[in-house]
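Board notes (copied after class):
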Amino acid sequence: MSRHRLAARFRGVAGAALMLMLGACSSSHGPQLKLDAADWQQYKQRFVAGEGRVVDNRNAHVSHSEGQGYGLLLAVAFGDRQAFDRIWQWTRSHLQVRGHDHLHAWKWSPASRRVEDYNNATDGDVLIAWALIRAWRQWQHAPYLEAAREILASLHKLKVKLPAGEFLLPGAKGFGNRHRAVLNPSYFLFPAYKSFASVDQGLDWMKLYRDASYLLQRCVFGEWGLPANWVQVDARVRPAAGREPYFGYDAMRIPLFLAWAGKRSRLGPYVRFWKQFSMQGGVPDQLDLENGFVHMSRDFHAVGAIAALSSHAYGGNAPYPDMHWLPDTAYYDASLILLSQLAWMEADRHEEGSK
């Protein structure tokens, strides 16, 4: 991966793909869009171990609560209850082991065959709870809803009231208090918050939804006005001290979740950023918000899928982001592409909403 200035040109395969996705002559596939069952078979074969562990093949084959959440969401989307139950049982047995709550330890290592960090990652817990609610609605199995509500009740304890609003801390330990906190804006899963509001009255999820939306309006950094992966929130909002000031692999999920929730008007900065690079033949996977440099990648294709989804939701012409399997396709890449497909199909059901 190399670093280039904005004017740099990149002629790799991924660059051409993004140009096609955002090109003026592109068109979506229309109403026949659907998930391809063959993609789910590939995903399971490559990333889901027999016992239900979702494997990060680019990171020592560890498993994260986030990855288990992706696997659960996709299992529901593809109607694969057997895989869903297998993934959920492994998740419950190996990660929901903190003892004092129903949150999930965020990292499990196959090398030690145990949890290596018992702190939770809130995005993983939100993804898992959301998948359980979707599974309950699809298969009418009450224990899924009960398990989701247990996770939500534990998430209540992570709520913090800051000058900028109310938010969930990214983890139970190490991210701040009621006066100041470090937050990850890509943990604001807007469509999940909407879903939680319908089944859990213990927390005002729509207030969290609104406050997260308002905070994103203040996360406008650098010449492109984009959010950082991590932000420090107290009386001010700024890129978090001690962390790289990047719009990168975390933050690129923000437009995915905005589009999924139908928040179309918020997608402008992301669409303009990616469109600029598509016209120059490049695919930026990270942007340094302080000095304007970008990282370019030949092998991270999810950014093209999210860019196409964002352009489509914003009202532009863009083709549906098909999945192209390569021998070394990464779990994170594949997960975000398939979730972009799912969001594409579901986003049009949501009305524009910024409140």
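Comment from the instructor: Residues 1-32, 351-355 have pLDDT under 50 and may be disordered. The longest strand covers residues 114-120.
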